[in-house]
Write a structure and sequence with these properties.
This protein has 83 residues and is α+β, with helices and mostly antiparallel strands. The chain has 4 helices and 3 strands. It has a 3-stranded mixed β-sheet with strand order 1-2-3. The chain is elongated. The N and C termini lie far apart (51 Å).
């Protein structure tokens, strides 16, 4: 993954966008990584993976709660008593 300074990225933005179509471009400011420029396609893949991860975690948590006796009715009661 190529690494460029923030100044270089700013001065060569069109070239950075083109480069990001091939592979992510790491951007540094004061020798510290501050951003990574990726293609829209790559971003969408990452976003979909995060959504799938959240759905898997939600399902796993739901199954665990149910195995411990949590029901929709009990949850409604607990939430109603909270306020």
């Amino acid at each position: 993954m190529p690494t460029v300074s923030a100044t270089h990225a700013k001065q060569n933005f069109a070239a950075m966008v083109d480069a990001a179509q091939r592979e992510p471009v790491r951007i540094q400011r004061h020798e510290r990584e501050v951003a990574v420029l990726v293609s829209a396609e790559e971003y969408e893949k990452i976003r979909q993976m995060r959504v799938q991860e959240l759905l898997r975690f939600t399902e796993e948590t739901s199954r665990y709660a149910e195995s411990q006796g949590m029901t929709d009715g009990l949850l409604e009661q607990l939430l109603a008593n909270k306020g």
